[in-house]
Amino acid sequence: MNVRRGGAARRIRRAAARRTAAKGTVAGAVAGAAAGAGGYAAAHATRRAGRRLTGRIIARVERRLERTVRRLAAEAEHAGPLAKAALAGARALSEGRSPARALLSAGWAALKETLARLFGRGRPGKLTTIVEQIDIGAPRRLVYDQWTRFQDYPSFMKKVVSVDQASDEKLNWKAKIFLSSRTWQSSIVEQLPDRHIVWRSKARKGRVDGTVSFHELAPNLTRVLLVLEYRPRGLFEKTGNLWRAQGRRVRLELKHFRRHVMTRSLTRPEDVRGWRGEIRDGEVVTSP
User: Domain Coenzyme Q-binding protein COQ10 START spans what residues (predicted)?
Assistant: First the structure.
C-alpha cells in the first residue's frame, strides 16, 4: 500500500514538473516575440529619425546654396567673367545637375562673358560689305523670275528655313545660324523687273540691307551681282563676322541658286512664274 502511494506521488510530481516546463517555454516564446517586436519598432524609429535628420541637412544646404546664388547674382551684375562663371555653376548645382554639368555651365558662361566684353554688349557690330557675283547659263528673264519666287528658297538653300511673303514688298524670313535660328523682316524699297531689287531689313540680331542686279551677258547667260551691307548684333553674329563666315555663306547660297536654275528652272521654264510688278520708294506702283 505504501509502495503504491509512493509511485503515485512520483507520477504527480513528474506531471507537475512537465506543466511547469511547458509554462516556461510558452512564457519564453512570448517574451522572445515581444523582444523581437520591440527591436523592429526601435529599428524603424531609428530609420525615421535618420531620414528626418537627412532631410533637415539637405534643406539647410539648399537654403545656404540659394543664399549663395542670390549673393553671386547681385555681385555678378558688375563683376567679370569669373563671377559670372561661378554664378552659372552655382545655379546648375541648385537645379540638381551633376558637378560635371555645373562645371561645363560655368565654363560656357565665362566664355560668353569674355566674348561679350571683346565685341561689345548690345552694340551693333562693325559694318561689313559683302560683294558676290555668279554667272548662270539661262536667260535673264528666267533668272529674275526664279529669284522673285522667294517661297522656293527653303527647297534649295541650305540655311533658309522659311520665307513668308506678307505682301508684295514685305517678307518674313527664318534661317539657321549655328545651332539656333534667326528671324528678320525685309522690305523691298525698289524693284524693277529684269534689272534690280533693293531692300532694307530689320531684326533683333542685326540687319542685312542689299541690292541684287541682273545683267545679260548673252541671250542664255546672265550675271547676278549681289551687294550686301551686313551689321551684326549678337554673340554668334559678331564672332562669325571675324572670319567672314557670312560672305562664305552668301557665296554658297548663290551656288545653290545657280544649281536650282540650271537643273530645275531650265527644264520647266513655263512653270516659273515670278512677280513682275514694280516697286518704288517702298510702294507698289505697277502690278503684273
Answer: 136-256
